[in-house]
Write a structure and sequence with these properties.
Number of helices: 9
Order of helices and strands: EHHEHHEHEHEHHHEEEEE
Distance between the termini: 47 Å
Shape: globular
Number of strands: 10
Helix content: 25-40%
Largest sheet: 4 strands, mixed
Strand order of the largest sheet: 1-5-3-4
Radius of gyration: 19 Å
């Protein structure tokens, strides 16, 4: 989920934390979506990149998501107290032509509505309108969105949150983060670069700049006679070692 930091209610850290803790990602993936989607533990998805030692970035960087309704309510209560309000209204914007985003949005509405102090309004639109009108013009509170990696490297995600990135529709800004991600772009030491990317993700998610929810699943059919078909990150299919058995 992308968050509009121009919204004074969402600019409150405890409110953002409450929203994240209110989402039972396991139930969403296994009982609602049921399409092979899996719980995401951070901003960088699993299976995207590995270290020089062969360790997946997601496993190496740790877990940043959790579900706890009671804690979500406590965080929201604290956030409302800091805002001087008894209730806030949040709009959830999503594209009806972006399966399974419509299903997820309905789940999200139900999850947030279970918290005392949040009123939810749904803004149903198309993907084109969501991105190039609503998000581009800052006309949103929470947006159900996603990102498909351009390459098998964590920077394909990390650069989205740079204050200078045109895709940073929520306008989150952090000078330490900007400096760190820019350093990653010129870092020659592989080990140091890996650590810098881990540090950058921690800054991003400790501040709940985005709220990661799930890694979208996909199903394909493959002839059992076809062997050694390699599916790389970004769903690039390699036929280099393909063999057909009788």
């Amino acid at each position: 989920m992308s968050i509009n930091f121009k919204n004074k209610d969402l600019a409150n850290l405890n409110v953002r934390k409450a929203i994240s803790y209110a989402i039972n990602r396991k139930v969403l993936c296994e009982n609602v979506l049921k399409d092979g989607s899996q719980v995401v533990k951070g901003f960088i998805p699993s299976g995207l990149a590995t270290s020089s030692c062969g360790v997946d970035f997601r496993k190496d960087s740790g877990d940043f998501t959790s579900y706890d309704k009671a804690q979500a309510q406590d965080l929201l209560d604290e956030g409302l107290k800091e805002l001087g309000k008894s209730e806030i209204t949040l709009r959830i914007t999503y594209g009806t032509d972006e399966s399974p985003m419509d299903v997820f949005s309905t789940y999200l509405q139900n999850a947030l509505s279970k918290l005392d102090g949040i009123k939810v309004e749904m803004v149903a639109t198309t993907k084109q309108d969501r991105i190039y009108n609503k998000q581009k013009n800052g006309d949103f509170d929470l947006v159900v969105t996603r990102w498909g990696p351009d390459c098998g490297d964590p920077t394909t995600y990390l650069t989205i949150a740079l204050s200078t990135n045109s895709n940073n529709y929520g306008k989150w800004k952090n000078s330490e983060y900007d400096q760190l991600v820019n350093q990653v772009g010129v870092e020659l030491d592989v080990e140091k670069r890996w650590q810098e990317m881990k540090d950058a993700e921690k800054i991003l998610l400790d501040d709940y700049a985005y709220i990661p929810v799930f890694e979208k699943g996909a199903a394909t059919l493959q002839n059992m006679k076809v062997k050694n078909l390699v599916i790389k990150p970004c769903r690039i299919i390699s036929f280099e070692y393909v063999e057909k058995t009788e």
